[in-house]
User: Which sequence fits this backbone?
């Protein structure tokens, strides 16, 4: 014999069994409705029905989420059809052979009938009716309503969930396989709850059918027993009532079990625990059980009450509360122990390096040398912290989003008076300050020197002196501006935050802004994000605006303009550029007050035409200038702007929108605080004054 063939036979047989059991079972159920069954087969099928219902109930209780039992609606249908087929088969036997005795329809029906009736037909009928009412009115109706509502809300939420998956996929949060799996789960969830909405109707119809079958069996049995078989009315009532109630109970108990399973499934919340564990963890709260114990104890001392029972219940509740409190304390100790292990106990191992030693996710941080620690050491947090808080509040109000908290910590690797400012992990500024001195910045045309340490102001690069506090009055009398060391560092921090504001806003921050706007303009928010513009795209656009020093405080205006740009298929940079004309007023009002004339600098027509031509010829590379031209252009712009800076004024450079972004990129690297606007960004109602024109000849 071929061993291969021998080994493959069981495998093929098993596949046949798995593939054939369900179809053959369905055919057997249909056959039961047509062909008469002997009593022993009825007993076997009734027991099987109860077994299936119990298994389904146990599986429903031990699933973590409803989709783990996605075949549940189909099982309900099959179990309901099986029960109805058994009812048809048992009704045929009861009506045709009931006159032979109470065991005519099998031992199972007889046993259930005797157990419930117990010699009193009226009580038996009432018990059966109560079971049907519990099943139909309470459990089945409630489960059906939950299924209906859940299906409706699940289907309504599908478009938003689909777009959320697409947004996460575009943002790189999900891989293509993960996104595909999420979509499949979402579709399965909608199909499941839709099927459950229909399956609950099967359970309801089954309960109604049980009542009708009971009435048919009792009334039909009495008519057949008396008219056809000559039974006495009392004997006929005894026999057929017992058989009818037994038959009804054998069907209703599995129906009740399935109704309970249905209610458990549709009310189940997705969790990493089964139902028993889930409920146990949530109700095991000591502060809930101990008051219950106290109330039961008080009731137990009321005269006339079953004192022993109430006092026993109070002791049980107190015991549960005690053990719950003990478990809570153990969990707290375990958490504390974990913290100690991770953070305190293990530093004694000087060779150990933890992840916290090499990672720092603070958006903004200031590192101080040991000589500057005193600036944050007093009880009020130190003058530096107060200044930083004021800077954050001011910048947040100006830019339109909450600037992240600034983390201040010491760093022994720095010199005593050195500080370092980081944006993320990148060092963006560092310098030295003297906490026991003050910085004196000379005014215009001051030739008188004062004693001090010569330095350059870290914010603006101006010549300055660190003087002793006792020399402040003398320095101010000679025209110097004297500032505290914490103000020096705070001003430097403010300048760097404004410069790198685009790096400080993320998707979470943008979502917070949207949530705030949603309170006043819900339709606007919901119609734009994420339907038209995904969250990550909006975040990128806002970052580009902030990089160009354009405030995003008018988020409503941004969302109103964005829909008109979606159809143009613009990049994030191009979208931000297209938004600038609608937001330029926010930027200009920071330069000059509303009622003052805006001083502007322009290129002459020849220079501007040349730059536009060069930009078009460069294509996607942008504006590319040769070294001599770039140097001459930057020098001319710098000389022009310095004249206004010396007078305490600020002029803006206005160029063609076609080259605005390229010119801004070039000047940003060499000239601080120069605003470059396009002609289209000048508000119509603002008065402007061309104070200088830059040419290629200057």
Assistant:
């Amino acid at each position: 014999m071929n061993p291969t063939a021998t080994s493959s036979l069981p495998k093929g047989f098993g596949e046949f069994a798995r593939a054939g059991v369900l179809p053959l079972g369905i055919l057997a159920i249909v056959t039961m409705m047509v062909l008469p069954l002997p009593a022993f087969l009825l007993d076997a099928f009734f027991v099987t029905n109860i077994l299936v219902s119990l298994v389904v109930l146990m599986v429903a209780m031990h699933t973590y989420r409803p989709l783990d039992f996605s075949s549940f609606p189909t099982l309900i249908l099959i179990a309901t059809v099986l029960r109805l087929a058994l009812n048809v088969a048992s009704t045929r036997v009861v009506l045709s052979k009931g006159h032979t005795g109470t065991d005519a329809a099998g031992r199972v029906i007889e046993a259930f009938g005797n157990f419930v009736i117990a010699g009193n037909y009226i009580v038996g009928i009432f018990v059966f009716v109560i079971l049907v009412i519990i099943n139909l009115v309470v459990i089945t109706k409630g489960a059906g309503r939950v299924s209906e509502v859940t299906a409706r809300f699940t289907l309504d939420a599908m478009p938003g969930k689909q777009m959320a998956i697409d947004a996460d996929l575009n943002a790189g949060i999900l891989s293509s396989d993960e996104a595909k799996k999420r979509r499949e789960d979402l579709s399965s969830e909608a199909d499941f709850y839709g099927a459950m909405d229909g399956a609950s109707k099967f359970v309801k119809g089954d309960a109604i059918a049980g009542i009708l079958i009971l009435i048919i069996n009792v009334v039909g049995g009495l008519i057949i027993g008396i008219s056809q078989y000559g039974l006495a009315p009392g004997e006929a009532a005894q026999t057929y009532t017992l058989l009818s109630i037994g038959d009804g109970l054998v069907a209703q108990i599995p129906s009740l079990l399935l109704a309970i399973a249905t209610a458990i499934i549709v009310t189940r919340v997705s969790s990493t625990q089964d139902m028993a564990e889930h409920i146990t963890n949530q109700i095991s709260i000591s502060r809930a059980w101990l008051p219950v114990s106290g109330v039961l104890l008080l009731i137990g001392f009321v005269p006339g009450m079953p004192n022993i029972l109430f006092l026993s219940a109070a002791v049980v509740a107190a015991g549960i509360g005690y053990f719950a409190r003990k478990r809570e304390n153990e969990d707290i100790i375990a958490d504390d122990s974990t913290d100690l292990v991770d953070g305190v106990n293990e530093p004694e191992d000087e060779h150990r390096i933890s992840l916290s030693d090499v990672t720092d996710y603070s958006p903004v941080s200031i590192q101080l040398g040991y000589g500057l620690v005193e600036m944050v050491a007093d009880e009020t947090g130190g003058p530096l912290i107060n200044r930083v808080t004021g800077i954050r509040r001011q910048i947040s109000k100006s830019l339109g989003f909450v600037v992240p908290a600034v983390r201040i910590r010491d760093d022994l690797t720095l010199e005593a008076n050195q500080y370092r400012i980081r944006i993320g992990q990148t060092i963006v500024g560092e310098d030295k300050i003297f906490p026991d001195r003050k910085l004196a910045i000379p005014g215009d045309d001051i030739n008188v020197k004062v004693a001090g340490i010569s330095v350059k102001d870290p914010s603006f690069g101006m010549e300055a002196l660190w003087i002793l506090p006792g020399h402040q009055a003398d320095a101010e009398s000679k025209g110097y501006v004297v500032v505290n060391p914490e103000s020096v560092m705070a001003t430097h921090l403010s300048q760097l935050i404004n410069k790198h504001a685009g790096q400080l806003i993320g998707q979470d921050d943008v979502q917070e802004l949207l949530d705030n706007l949603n309170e006043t303009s819900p339709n606007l928010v919901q119609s734009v994000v994420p339907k038209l513009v995904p969250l990550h795209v909006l975040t990128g656009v806002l970052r580009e605006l902030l990089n160009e020093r354009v405030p995003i405080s008018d988020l409503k205006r941004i969302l109103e303009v964005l829909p008109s740009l979606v159809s143009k298929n613009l990049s994030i940079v191009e979208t931000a550029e297209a938004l600038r004309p609608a937001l330029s007023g926010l930027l200009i009002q920071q330069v000059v007050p509303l009622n003052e004339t805006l001083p502007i600098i322009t290129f002459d027509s020849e220079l501007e035409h040349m730059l536009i031509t060069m930009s078009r010829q460069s294509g996607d590379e942008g504006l590319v200038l040769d070294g001599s031209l770039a140097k001459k252009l930057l020098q001319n712009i710098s000389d022009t702007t310095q004249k206004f800076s010396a007078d305490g004024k600020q002029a803006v450079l206005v160029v063609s929108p076609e080259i605005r972004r390229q010119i801004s990129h070039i000047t940003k690297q060499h000239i601080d605080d120069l605003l470059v606007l396009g002609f289209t960004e000048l508000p119509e109602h603002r008065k402007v004054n061309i104070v200088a024109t830059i040419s290629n000849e200057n």
Q: What stands out?
A: The mean pLDDT is 77.
